[in-house]
Design brief:
The protein is an alpha/beta fold and 167 residues long. It has helices spanning 13-25, 53-62, 72-80, 101-109, 121-133, 147-158, and strands at residues 2-5, 31-34, 46-48, 65-68, 85-87, 115-117.
């Protein structure tokens, strides 16, 4: 099963439409999505606007791959389970967020194990195919992420933001 979550602040139909298109071509793979607020329907996925805590955790635990926006909560939740993460940042230019901070988050995640970043919707499907073609590692689905992944995420989260130059 593939599980996608896009956060709750603004619609992220670009990611969801790309995943729904992939799901249409792969009916043998179950795809579940927490869509947040959107008026768009995605007929090839099992969608819910919001999942309760238990259903959300169950989806994370049973998923083969987690598809997420570049929100730290989603990244950390997937990492804690050692799941492969396919990350696509929201873009302000497309009205998906108020600014492009998710591009910065995605850039920091590119070198982490189990994290694959795509920026373009048309890259989501082929990248998901490549992730699914990899053998399932012994760590996949484990209850802990690698020490390197945890250290890198902590370093990124707790890093001092760059200071603006004095005027």
């Amino acid at each position: 099963m593939i599980f996608a979550t896009v956060g709750t602040q603004l619609p992220f139909d670009r990611l969801l439409a790309a995943l729904d298109s992939w799901a249409a071509a792969h009916p043998e793979v179950s795809v579940k999505a927490q869509t947040g607020r959107t008026d768009t329907r995605f007929p090839h996925m099992d969608c819910a606007e919001n999942l309760d805590h238990a259903a959300f955790n169950a989806a994370f635990a049973t998923a083969r791959v987690i598809v997420v926006h570049a929100g730290m909560g989603s990244i950390l939740s997937a990492s804690e389970l050692g799941k492969p993460i396919l990350l696509m940042p929201r873009r302000a230019a497309f009205g998906e967020h108020r600014n492009d901070h998710q591009l910065d988050t995605a850039a920091e995640m590119t070198d982490l194990p189990n994290v694959t970043v795509v920026d373009q919707a048309e890259d989501l499907g082929p990248t998901l195919d490549r992730i699914l073609a990899r053998p399932i590692s012994a760590e996949a689905g484990s209850a802990t992420a690698s020490a390197q992944l945890i250290a890198n995420l902590q370093s990124f989260i707790f890093a001092t933001p760059p200071q603006e130059p004095a005027a």
